């Protein structure tokens, strides 16, 4: 078994503890630490929250705000996804998407609910969210929101979308000559353009895997 295949099996089977702390809707830190059966099972539980929303309106609202719930130790936690947390770092810089931006974006997408409900595929959906974007609602927020709404609608991406951590993961694979050198410049990539080991994952999982394992890719043997 090569190292890349081992990483993918690890992603699907080894207990996973998110590195970033969770915060609730009010911005209070949740002090509990969580360990899930695997990184992929955590992703599934996170997306299942949006799949099970009672209505498209509810799915849009929670998707934009980055809020979701999960059960852990006989308790239900409502948390804001780390990508949509907003905080000030040690350099006094504001990091993340301000809550008022998330709320405003939610209102805008709710005004476009008919367009969203008529999306025929994920590409239609992410185009709608992109066209509606406002300042400070960047590429990662657009992708996350689209994936969440898509989970409710049953419209999953067929490609792997490049941004932030996923792009860095591809860049590190390029350094090892494991993927074509120009792949990281693409907005989205075909699953078939990646090594065969990746075929065991669907595009959302691949994007997540690239983010989580980007630094470990530097330990791979090059080709």
Strand-helix topology:
Elements: H1 3-13, H2 39-51, H3 56-65, E1 67-72, E2 75-80, E3 86-88, E4 94-96, H4 99-111, H5 113-117, H6 122-132, H7 139-153, E5 160-161, H8 164-175, E6 188-189, H9 203-213
Antiparallel strand pairs: 1-2, 3-4, 5-6
Order of helices and strands: HHHEEEEHHHHEHEH
Number of helices: 9
Helix content: 40-55%
Got a strand count? 6
Determine the N-to-C terminus distance: 16 Å
Strand content: 5-15%
Question: What structural category characterises the helix and strand content?
Answer: mainly alpha
Overall body shape: globular
Main sheet: strand order: 1-2
Which regions are unreliable across 5 or more consecutive residues at pLDDT < 50? Answer: none
Residue-averaged pLDDT: 93
Major sheet, described briefly? 2 strands, antiparallel
Gyration radius, to the nearest Å?
A: 18 Å
What's the short story on this structure?
The chain contains nine helices and six strands. It is mostly helical and 223 residues long.
Describe what you observe in this structure.
The chain has 223 residues and is mainly alpha-helical. The chain is 45% helix and 10% strand. The chain contains nine helices and six strands; from the N terminus they run αααββββααααβαβα. The strands form three sheets. It has a two-stranded antiparallel sheet. The mean pLDDT is 93.
